[in-house]
Amino acid sequence: MEEKLKKCTVSKKCGSCQYQGISYKEQLAVKQKKMNKLLKKFANVKPIIGMENPFYYRNKVHAVFDRDRKGNIICGTYEAKTHKVVPVEECLIEDKISQEIIRTIRDMLKSFKIKTYDEDTGYGLLRHVLVRRGFSTGEIMVVLVAASPIFPSKNNFVKALRKKYPQITTVVLNVNDKKTSMVLGERDIVLYGKGFIRDNLCGCSFRISPQSFYQVNPVQTEILYKTAIEYAGLGRKETVIDAYCGIGTIGLVAAGKAKNVIGVELNPDAVHDAKINARENKITNTRFYQGDAGEFMEKMAEEGERADVVFMDPPRTGSDKKFMSSVIKLAPSRIVYISCGPESLARDLEYFTEHGYTVRKIQPVDMFSFTDHCENVVLLRRK
């Protein structure tokens, strides 16, 4: 493959890819060794499932906009541990079309007299551009993150952009007027299309809004979720909790094999999308609630309600003792833990094994080639 001969020119400054210059086979071997070291005390760690193609897999591409010392408009990523922008012409792990769209926007700014935002002075308009592409549907969302809701010649800008990329199905203006390191603000203004895209995963269709969490590597996500569903051992008679449910991905995929699924998520926008996703997939045995999943399960336990399986897919920092103690109180027969942080996973498995559960299976899945991140699916059973 041609890309194997390529080397990223900004990897040292960018810092996102720790395994640049290492063959993919070697990367997998390093990750396997790391997973074995961290997790083998709990159970046998299965061989890592790698990607068929480890390049251009990210369906979500973000670029920050700035000017260089000569005043030229640049777009790229922040240098590791700084807010200095590193210009990026090509990234080897981000979707190619999405990258092209971002470079085209950069080249359009001058003719439309749109200034980039300066973090120090607070002057300027365009802060970031986010592009999300549904790999199975081909739908593309462009999110322009600006410091003001007033975007000059917005209709003509969108028209010019879509003339070059007619496959763009929606354009959203996100307003971020705060001095913050957060990329997205709270307000979205739809400039073109529906304000969301759709993608298909494990036989279900999912609506993805600008703020929604959706796995960035859809090919490996299919493998990840199918493994999780298999580990749950569903037989159409179980009550399932999908904690940290996001837009309902795992819960809706599991619904076809369970009696009923309850999804709990803090983000109200994600819950809104989850309910729509259930309705549009004609899935009637799911309920989604906005709130803290730990508190929800504690209340279930207090009211004598039961769950047979809990899916938990926490952030990289892992879960916390308050949440895990609520799972213990609910006492499901099986917990399927989907982890993107092996160190926090090892810590959390320690807690569960001290509170009545045994680890039965551990399956690493490589979702992020060239980085040191690795996902794991773990099955725990109550003793």
Any chance you could write out the topology, listing elements then pairs?
Elements: H1 11-14, H2 24-39, E1 60-67, E2 73-78, E3 85-87, H3 96-108, E4 126-133, E5 140-146, H4 154-164, E6 168-175, E7 187-192, E8 197-201, E9 204-208, H5 218-232, E10 239-243, H6 249-255, E11 260-265, H7 268-280, E12 286-290, H8 293-302, E13 309-312, H9 321-330, E14 334-339, H10 342-354, E15 357-365, E16 375-382
Parallel strand pairs: 5-6, 10-11, 10-13, 11-12, 13-14
Antiparallel strand pairs: 1-2, 1-4, 2-3, 4-5, 6-7, 8-9, 14-16, 15-16
Helix pairs in contact: 8-9
Per the principal axes of the C-alpha atoms, what is the gross shape? globular
How much helicity do the residues have? 25-40%
Strand order of the largest sheet: 3-2-1-4-5-6-7
What structural category arises from helix and sheet content?
A: alpha/beta
Protein name: 23S rRNA (Uracil(1939)-C(5))-methyltransferase RlmD
Pfam families: tRNA_U5-meth_tr
GO molecular function: rRNA (uridine-C5-)-methyltransferase activity
EC number: 2.1.1.190
